[in-house]
Amino acid sequence: MVDGYIEPLYDYLDDSKALAWGNEEARICEMRPNRKFDGKQAICGTFFITGDNGEDSLSLTENQVKKYLEMFKSQTDLQSVRSVRHSDVRCISSHSRS
Description:
Blueprint: E1 6-9, E2 18-23, E3 33-35, E4 43-44, E5 47-52, E6 57-58, H1 62-71, E7 89-91
């Protein structure tokens, strides 16, 4: 899903009940920046978001799916990041349909 070894991306989301996941070697592999978060390094390569209860990854709630789809629908967050391709964000939920 992330084209390599997966790692949790802590402190990128302002939701304690959600967690972003990405490629552990994205910068080493020189993957292009995907999203820039205020005060943080850009996430490079594909990433996805799951629900989180502190111990397990969970499906996102319907409200979380709506929140993150809205948050990532535009590329305005990427203006300060060079060489950006179309974002590839996946919201994982047993309630959402592909």
